[in-house]
Amino acid sequence: MDAKDILGLPKNALPIQEKKSKPPKESQRKPDGISREVYALTGGLAPLMPAVDVNQLKRKAQSDNEKITWQWLPFTNSARKDSLQLYHWVRVVNGIPPTGDYSFAKYNKSVDVLKYTDEEYEKYLTDPAWTKEETDQLFDLCERFDLRFIVVADRFPSSKTVEELKDRYYSVSRAILIARALSPGDVATHPLVKETYNASQETERKRALNLLLSHTKQQERKDVEVLAQAKKISEARKASKASEESELPVLSDIGSLGADKATADTVNPSTNSQIPSSSITAPVSETASVIASLRMLRVYLRSYALEQMVQAASSSAGLRTIKRVEQTLQDLGVNLKPKVPTKAVCAEHLELRKEILTLLNLQKQ
């Protein structure tokens, strides 16, 4: 007796599961052009590097009438002036050698260096720092080395810098072009005439580049920190300027109007007893302080004075009131900033703003 007999279970309680037949694997055929060992290692996977199509490596089928041979034939290069004859292997079809110039002669590029006569030199090209012999030698070297001024400076006999050689060459070439032209407008678009060479700027550029390349890692990190700090300061200034412009972007020149004009433009307390006295006395004191600061400057821009006076006049007003002043100016067709900021225009502009501000204060009361 076992546990199945005690529990009353049949002897074969679990059905026998039939094994599922797996589908046969499809055998992959080894591709042509690859050995059996390599195919067994890769397992038919795609190569890491793209393979070249075998068809691209096949040469076009030759016709039955063509007979191709390779012959050792002489050739001359048109880029050479000594008519040197050399030999190379040439593909010959049906016994007819190829004709034409050497295939690599087209890559021989040379610079067209201007030539001048003795008369032109005496008339247009004289320079106290240069003799005619030095100028002739400079142009010969420039033509020989295709304006490679580093090589020209190395071969030049006198101790002239690269910048001096460039300056002399381009100034002479520019003078020749202008002298030979019928009118200055004919050569105005020429690169040598349009873009003049600046030797002092080139020297300063090389000095700055040399200074930059000689920086150490510590100096580079310091420069990065300085630039980041400068960026933060610039962003903070832009934000403060934007906030000031949103409050009241108005400017005016006061000049000789003085404190009397500012006092006269303010609201008279007797006109409306309901207006608080703080809204009247504050602009007066602010205007007086601005005039005093401008007198200390002695020299200042009229636009700067206009800006300071407008800010002083609207110091007691809120941002909402200032925006209403700007809206009123736009409704009247008046520019927020005078296009022609003369002394009289700025004074009238400031007076108009103060009158609008007074009107808004009266409406508010």
Overall geometric form: flat
Number of helices, counting only DSSP H or I runs of 4 residues or more = 15
Radius of gyration over all CA atoms, rounded: 45 Å
- Average pLDDT: 79
Say how many strands there are. 2
Content-based structural category: mainly alpha
Distance from N terminus to C terminus (CA atoms, Å) equals 112 Å
Provide structural commentary.
- Residues 17-34 have a biased composition (Basic and acidic residues).
- It is built from 15 helices and 2 strands.
- Helix 14 (319-331) packs across helix 15.
- The termini are far apart.
- The radius of gyration is 45 Å and the shape is flat.
- It has 365 residues and is mainly α.
In terms of topology, how is this protein built?
Layout: H1 3-7, H2 36-42, H3 54-57, E1 68-76, E2 85-93, H4 118-125, H5 132-144, H6 149-155, H7 162-180, H8 191-194, H9 199-213, H10 217-247, H11 258-265, H12 278-297, H13 302-313, H14 319-331, H15 343-364
Antiparallel strand pairs: 1-2
Quick overview of this protein structure:
By secondary structure, the chain is mainly α.
For this entry, give a set of tags.
52% helix, 5% strand, transcription corepressor activity, two-stranded antiparallel sheet, single chain, 365 residues, flat
